[in-house]
Specification:
Blueprint: E1 6-14, E2 21-26, E3 29-33, H1 42-55, E4 62-66, E5 72-78, H2 82-90
Parallel strand pairs: 1-3
Antiparallel strand pairs: 1-5, 2-3, 4-5
Length: about 90
Amino acid sequence: MEDTPHTTLTVRVLPRSSRDEIVGTQDGIYKIKLTAPAVEGKANKSLVSFLAKRLGLPKTKIQIISGERSRTKSLRIHGLPPDEVKALLIHPS
């Protein structure tokens, strides 16, 4: 397979919020508020863009692996190990 590190992340999306932000974690699940509505994949696109910017990665390195039509989603982030992802999500640079 590939040698690059990757991280699997579980998030709970709260669409139609006043701003895009990570509001915390609960049981290992990141709660993320997004301004985009959960319509026609807009929230999914917004989530990938938000995380890519926060992690300093291209959007192509982040993929939704389950929960595309659910508020709780699993994502795979290519190119960063789990400890680095956690640090960037909790304490952005």
